[in-house]
Amino acid sequence: MSRVTPTVRSLLRQPYASQWRQTPVLRPSRAWTKPAYQPIRCLATPAAMPKASKENIGVYCNPAHDLWVKESGPSMNEVKTGEALKEGEVTIAIKSTGICGSDIHFWRHGRIGPMVVEHDHILGHESAGEIIAVHPSVKNLSVGDRIAVEPSSICNKCEPCLTGRYNGCLEMRFMSTPPVDGLLRRYVNHSAIWCHKIGNMSYEDGAMLEPLSVSLAGMHRAQIALGDPVLICGAGPIGLMTLLCCAAAGAEPIVITDIDQARLDVAKEICPRVKTYKVEPGVSMEDAGAAMSKLAGGALTTALECSGVESSIAAAIYSVKFGGKVFVIGVGKPDMQIPFMRLSTQEIDLQFQYRYANTWPRAIRLVQSGVIDMKRLVTHRFDLEDAVSAFETSAGSAKTGAIKVLIQNP
Q1: Are strands 195-197 and 187-191 parallel, antiparallel or unpaired?
Q2: Strands across the sheet containing 57-61
């Protein structure tokens, strides 16, 4: 929505005036009594209605591994009247959403560990859009604001929340993780505190802030510093995003691995000084790790594993020197075998990551300043109505060359 005057903005908030205005209702009596109060419900005038010209639709999967697009909530009438908004919420017109590997897993496999698709389920959690309605209790956002969505909802009561590590919230409701529906819709109601203003940043970059946040969380916890020799395992979207971050942080040398030469070529394009290693079939984990270490001059101190593949994690363990660290960002199968004695005798730390916390303001600063440029990672774009084709393209990346596929709703 284009910029509106304060008068129009106040009209936009009138549907919720029932929570703020009261009028006395006088009851007949011979003696005067204190008036009983009842709330007034004020309906917005047509001119103040949020801009919602199309019915809401969403991208669904189910336990049978079907994938389809159909009508979703909130309905267009609920968007226009604001009747479905709760305290602290805003309505977002989603403009751009990235397809994550977890979306593919929920569609193709129906689960990631204990998170299982049991009913019709809406996918998507990498999104940016425009605020088109605001609950009166929200003071930090206005209609027309461009925002990126952090897809979390936390309790603010448990120890992880109270200590600032809210990604470990014991009651976390993360959008697109069953049973919580995701963001691949035209319109979504979401808590205002998780909507980050992006100014004139493109909606595409706004959607890419979510995977950037994953990489930033890994960088922070792995404590990558200027001049650190780093191995990045996997040149998918997260691996390439992590490469951008390591390069910006001054890591040197940087080695990145993958089984796909085309992705390694992209890595070389976005960071010319990176050294690439193509993982060939049949090579042992020990030999692969030794080759990666040699490529870095034999001084690898940290490996950032971004694929979640068991053999890749093992090769990373064999690549780092005594006292090194293997930090696993990727998500893999529930149970794995690892070279325990290598970890033990070489005092190698093995650490893991779960999503992110407190990364979005940093991610926004990095993109707005030009320190991180993610545009080359976007290879395909589809309209929301063509989401099934978008998912097929993303899932078939070996043939399509897809890195990051975005679904758009102009």
Answers
A1: unpaired
A2: 67-71, 57-61, 121-122
